[in-house]
Design brief:
single chain, about 170 residues, alpha/beta, Rossmann fold, 2 domains, five-stranded mixed beta sheet, about 10% strand, globular
């Protein structure tokens, strides 16, 4: 919501809850905040606990370098400190891109990183031919609605990828 939308809500005496989802830990913390905001703190705490337990139970798949591409043009990827990068780290996977956001990379930078696996959301379209033609890595298409927005369903997204990697 931009400043004018926030000002309008305040002028109408509407309650507003502003959340930030940058890291994996922000997800359960914000679930608790939403529960409090809705006057359902026990439900928020229970949902947050469930989220944390599902993260703790994730199987580990160590030894692979995984790049998550949000979209291809321009190529935006998940950095190590983003909630996606931190989720992949919970699986024991390495995210080769430093930083906590979603930086833009060139094809040359991806080639230099040399990931084993490139994950991309189903709504991003197919990988560009410049990457496909190389035959250097495994591509895995994932559900964008589970990956691109931090939510209570993110542990399921991680578990699905872990199982898919086990089969490869």
């Amino acid at each position: 919501m931009d400043a004018s939308g926030l000002a309008l809500c305040r002028s109408l005496s509407l309650p507003v809850l502003i959340l930030s989802f940058r890291t994996l830990d922000d997800i359960p913390a914000n679930i608790r905040r939403i529960g409090e905001f809705l006057d359902r703190p026990d439900q928020g705490k229970a949902e947050a606990r469930s989220f944390e337990q599902r993260l703790s139970a994730l199987p580990r798949r160590a030894g692979r370098s995984v790049l998550y591409v949000l979209w291809w043009t321009p190529m935006r990827v998940a950095g190590r400190g983003s909630f996606i990068g931190q989720g992949l780290a919970r699986l024991g996977l390495q995210t080769p891109v430093k930083g906590d956001g979603f930086p833009q990379l060139s094809l040359e930078e991806v080639l230099a990183i040399k990931p084993n696996v490139i994950l991309y959301p189903d709504d991003a379209g197919p990988p560009p031919s410049g990457l496909l033609d190389r035959g250097l890595w495994t591509f895995m298409r994932v559900q964008g609605d589970l990956w691109n927005r931090p939510s209570v369903r993110f542990p399921q997204a991680l578990e699905d990828v872990s199982h898919a990697l086990e089969e490869k």
